[in-house]
């Protein structure tokens, strides 16, 4: 089977319920989610051994859920009965975040992306996730979408922040603090 169809050669693509231009807000939203999924896969591939077995499994679940987010956003007409993203998914992320935060040292300043290479990739995941959230919010202002997708993406970016810090902690690498500002946080564990 050929992977090319030639149906998009004129700048259009199929969504559930019709065709749209490839720069449509809908395509921007779930295309950014797809980009995020690629970075999550990269981060996951960098996690060797038992040290990261727990979060490697979490990231695999997140990759499936990112496909669910894209699927939900692909509907031209709202169809709540077919949506895959639920509020329970964001609640589960909160539990994972709390567990990760318990491993992390107290935070007093803003954290710059960095430390270990793996943490840096997770910070890329966080920033791409924020962009996916923004694109999804923009889409939701012009058409009906599954609102749980926005909540999930919002919580997911927090998860990536907590995980980047946990990775640094487990590797014995210090987070990179933004030192040009005042101490702005109380213990967020």
TrEMBL record:
Keywords: ATP-binding, Cobalamin biosynthesis, Nucleotide-binding, Transferase. It catalyses: 2 cob(II)yrinate a,c diamide + reduced [electron-transfer flavoprotein] + 2 ATP = 2 adenosylcob(III)yrinate a,c-diamide + 2 triphosphate + oxidized [electron-transfer flavoprotein] + 3 H(+); 2 cob(II)alamin + reduced [electron-transfer flavoprotein] + 2 ATP = 2 adenosylcob(III)alamin + 2 triphosphate + oxidized [electron-transfer flavoprotein] + 3 H(+). Its EC number is 2.5.1.17. SUPFAM superfamilies: Cobalamin adenosyltransferase-like. Pathway: Cofactor biosynthesis; adenosylcobalamin biosynthesis; adenosylcobalamin from cob(II)yrinate a,c-diamide: step 2/7. One of its GO terms (biological process) is cobalamin biosynthetic process. Residues 3-167 form the Cobalamin adenosyltransferase-like domain. InterPro entries: CblAdoTrfase-like (IPR016030), CblAdoTrfase-like_sf (IPR036451), PduO-typ (IPR029499). Pfam families: Cob_adeno_trans. It comes from the Bacteria. Transmembrane segments: none annotated. One of its GO terms (molecular function) is ATP binding. Coiled coil: none annotated. Homotrimer. Belongs to the Cob(I)alamin adenosyltransferase family. This is Corrinoid adenosyltransferase. It comes from Paenibacillus durus.
């Amino acid at each position: 089977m050929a992977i090319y169809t030639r149906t998009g050669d004129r700048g259009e693509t199929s969504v559930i319920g019709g065709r749209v231009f490839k720069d449509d807000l809908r395509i921007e939203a779930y295309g950014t989610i797809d980009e995020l999924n690629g970075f999550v896969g990269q981060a996951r591939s960098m996690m060797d051994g038992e040290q990261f077995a727990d979060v490697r499994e979490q990231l695999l679940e997140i990759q499936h859920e990112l496909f669910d987010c894209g699927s939900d956003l692909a509907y031209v007409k709202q169809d709540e009965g077919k949506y895959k993203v639920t509020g329970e998914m964001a609640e589960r992320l909160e539990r994972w975040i709390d567990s990760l935060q318990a491993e992390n040292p107290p935070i007093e300043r803003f954290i710059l992306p960095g430390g270990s290479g793996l943490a840096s990739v997770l910070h890329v995941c966080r920033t791409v996730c924020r962009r996916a959230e923004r694109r999804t919010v923009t889409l939701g202002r012009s058409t009906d979408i599954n609102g749980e997708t926005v909540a999930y993406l919002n919580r997911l970016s927090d998860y990536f922040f907590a995980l980047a810090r946990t990775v640094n902690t487990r590797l014995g690498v210090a987070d990179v603090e933004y030192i040009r500002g005042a101490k702005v946080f109380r213990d967020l564990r």
